[in-house]
Structures are given as structure tokens and as C-alpha cells.
Amino acid sequence: QVQPVESGGGLVQPGGSLRLSCAASGRTFSTYIMGWFRQAPGKEREFVARISRSGGSTFYSDSVKGRFTISRDNAKNTVYLQMNSLKPEDTAVYYCAADSGGGRYIYTDRRSYDYWGQGTQVTVSS
Questions:
Q1: Which end of the chain has fewer CB within 10 Å, C or N?
Q2: Rounded distance, CA 117 to CA 24, Å?
Q3: Rounded distance, CA 81 to CA 23, Å?
Q4: Among residues 83, 51, 54, which one has the least CA distance to residue 66?
Q5: For 7-35, what is each residue's pLDDT tens digit?
């Protein structure tokens, strides 16, 4: 079992950058596939990015591909989301989630993930 805790959110101008971190408690962090989702006001929670257990494979939504980079450091039990060229439409609460790999749902489906953090607010505005 892991408990993700996000940090690094804040207010940034359009075109700026932020790096989100997600520290996960527990000795089994490296056995989880990790993902990032986001939820804007009045909208459904949507998939952003996903990284394999070793970090060798990554997946992104079309809306962030080429601008965001997900990475992980298993020695530090931490997953990161580097966000560049931020746009106002990136404004949302960003959530970190852990997937034990049951495989019942497609990886973009929030039901694929077993553990969730509380979220961190990202606001992109001038």
C-alpha cells in the first residue's frame, strides 16, 4: 500500500513552467505504476500522464504531449511532473495516483488506479 502526497503547485504565468512532485509512503513504491490526473472546475477528472514501474515507459494525453514530462526516482519514492509552456487551460487540481497493475481498465481510466493523493492546485494566469 502507498499513500501519495503531491506538492509543487502554484500560480504561474502562461508560457511558464512548474514541477510537481508526488512522494509516496511505503516500501513497495517501485511495484506501482504511477500516474497524474487533473480536474478543472466543473469538469471530469482527466488523465495526464503515466509511467511504468521502472520508468522506462511513459504515456501522455494529447493535450500535454510535448510539453509535460513524467519521471520517477524509486530510491526517493517520488514521481515528478515537469510542466512547460503552460497554458490557461492547464489550470486544474493535479492528482497523483498509484496503479498496482490489475489491468482491468485502460490506463487512462481513473478506475485503473488504487491510491490517490489529495491534489495540488495549478493556476495558469497572467
A1: C
A2: 9
A3: 12
A4: 83
A5: 999 999 999 999 999 999 887 999 999 99
- Find out whether 24 and 5 touch, Cβ atoms under 8 Å: yes
pLDDT tens, residue by residue, 29-60: 999 999 999 999 999 999 999 999 999 999 99
> Exposure pattern of 58-83 as b/e (b: 16+ CB <10 Å)?
ebbbeebeeebbbebeeeebbbbbeb
- In the three-class reduction of DSSP (H, G, I as helix; E, B as strand; rest coil), residue 37 is classed as strand
For residue 102, give the C-alpha cell: 490489475
What does DSSP assign to residue 26? S
Give the tens place of pLDDT for each residue, 88-104: 999 999 999 999 987 78
- To which residue does cell 493535450 refer? 63
Q: Enumerate long-range contacts of 9-12, CB under 8 Å, 24 or more apart.
A: 9/94, 9/120, 9/121, 9/122, 10/121, 10/122, 10/123, 11/123, 11/125, 12/86, 12/122, 12/123, 12/124
101, amino acid identity = G
The residue behind cell 501522455 is: 60
